[in-house]
Amino acid sequence: QSMDSTLHYIHNDSDLSTNSSFSPEEERKSKVQDVVPQALLDQYLSMTDPSRAQTVDTEIAKHCAYSLPGVALTLGRQNWHCLKDTYETLAADMQWKVRRTLAFSIHELAVILGDQLTAGDLVPVFNGFLKDLDEVRIGVLKHLHDFLKLLHVDKRREYLYQLQEFLVTDNSRNWRFRAELAEQLILLLDLYSARDIYDYLRPIAFSLCADKVSSVRWISYKLVSEMVKKLYMASTPTFVVDLMNELVEKFCRCHKWSGRQTFVFICQTISEDDCLPMDQFA
């Protein structure tokens, strides 16, 4: 309880905006806070200095990135202005390991900062990570649901158009990337409307069901069954009817045996998980 009250004190809801056209004196003042000794914070912020990385430790920027959510939590969102420049510097670091570290923790930072600061300062960084190397993108993908659920509904819908891009990887043999995408899409079903699921997530799910790797396909069967369940419970029944008709057309009547086998496995998953009433299933 005492910890909760301390966090509440640290994280009051005052979101301070920062002006990018600061004089050197104002710049120095913008880094001042009263939560931890200022000398300690200054020492931490200096870790992104390139000369320090060359003379002290080549991994220092990675350590700095790893600790940043903890520093942000300690300082509280009202002192985010102290860390913002350092975060943006690390997000643009030449070493992919530094960017990867930030990508894996950006959803945690979003919780600490709240929706207003997340939309203004983290979303642009998040968008940059989406176009990065696979080693960085996987960090964003593994916590895609955790990050998107924190965004405003309109902002969240913008990412529907980009989900298709996760099917393309630097190395096509990187099947775990596609398996993670299928796992995340199951969670994302709760964040989007029936129409969005049908229009945007359905084509990706069908593509994953035809993947060359069986581990990806098995997760995708679960994804399609959950999609059937979600659309059946929606107020518009046409979506689930159209989806089931497409399953029959695309897989049941497929000229390849693997497609017909996929249909059987999807039917098995739908019945095992009670995604449809049996009369509707029949």
TrEMBL record:
<dbReference type="InterPro" id="IPR051023">
    <property type="entry name" value="PP2A_Regulatory_Subunit_A"/>
</dbReference>
<feature type="region of interest" description="Disordered">
    <location>
        <begin position="11"/>
        <end position="32"/>
    </location>
</feature>
<dbReference type="GO" id="GO:0019888">
    <property type="term" value="F:protein phosphatase regulator activity"/>
</dbReference>
<dbReference type="InterPro" id="IPR011989">
    <property type="entry name" value="ARM-like"/>
</dbReference>
<dbReference type="InterPro" id="IPR016024">
    <property type="entry name" value="ARM-type_fold"/>
</dbReference>
<dbReference type="GO" id="GO:0005737">
    <property type="term" value="C:cytoplasm"/>
</dbReference>
<protein>
    <submittedName>
        <fullName>PP4R1 phosphatase</fullName>
    </submittedName>
</protein>
<keyword id="KW-0677">Repeat</keyword>
